[in-house]
Design goal:
single chain; alpha/beta
Length: 231
């Protein structure tokens, strides 16, 4: 029976959240907006349009959105040749692949950005597919990205585990009926992640790898084994 490990990328497998915050902060500043970096950080995980609306408010001049988003993309792009993976990221994906899991990346990144992230993680041999924001009408915290990724793997909600670092990741997973596992390496407090639906919380991919045998991944595998052995 198939099983799917669904992974957010920024802040979950790649240590890029603070690079995004810096790039967004400068993009806002260039357009005349002085915004707190904490506000940007807590909005990460949303599609660009939603992030801008969350930070500036729905009464903003939305005519600036495209310019702000383009500026962020250009500024963030200057880091593409040196994006850092988080500890254990590639090893975690390969360990799951060896155990029969289909690893699906669930990310708003695409094109050169996604390529740079995949080079940083350095585990293409263990990645089955990618679900991007372009594949769905609504991004996280809507459940659509998680549901689409699950469908790519051909599994039910009970055969999938979602791993992410943001409140929006946890909300999207729980709304899709998928077990939600949170990592603290994205900088969001444990209490916020648990309130948003995280069933388990780990420091980073390395700790999750060390504790795979006690995690939601083991629970799904055990249920699968019990289902096969049932009379």
């Amino acid at each position: 029976m198939a099983r799917a490990a669904l992974f957010d990328v920024d802040g979950t497998l790649a240590d890029t959240n603070h690079l995004h915050v810096t790039a967004w902060w400068e993009a806002f500043r260039q357009r005349g907006h002085q915004v707190p970096m904490t506000a940007i950080h807590h909005a990460l995980g949303r599609p660009s349009h939603d992030l801008i609306g969350h930070v500036l408010g729905e009464d903003r001049d939305a005519g600036q959105d495209a310019d702000i988003s383009a500026a962020h993309k250009t500024l963030y792009g200057t880091y593409f040749d040196r994006l850092p993976a988080l500890p254990g990221a590639g090893d975690l994906l390969r360990a799951l692949a060896r155990r029969g899991w289909h690893n699906i990346l669930v990310t708003s990144a695409g094109g050169y950005e996604l390529g740079a992230l995949r080079r940083a993680i350095d585990a293409d041999d263990a990645i089955t597919d990618t679900a991007s924001a372009d594949d769905v009408k609504e991004g996280k915290p809507a459940p659509e990205p998680v549901e689409y990724a699950r469908e790519l793997a051909g599994v039910s909600a009970g055969q999938a585990v979602f791993v992410g670092d943001s409140v929006y990741d946890m909300q999207a997973a729980t709304r899709a009926g998928v077990r939600a596992v949170a990592l603290l390496c994205g900088g969001i407090p444990r209490a916020d992640l648990e309130e948003a639906g995280a069933a388990e919380v780990y420091a980073d991919p390395a700790e999750l790898l060390d504790r795979l045998g006690d995690s939601a991944f083991a629970e799904v595998a055990d249920q699968e084994g019990a289902g096969r052995s049932a009379p």
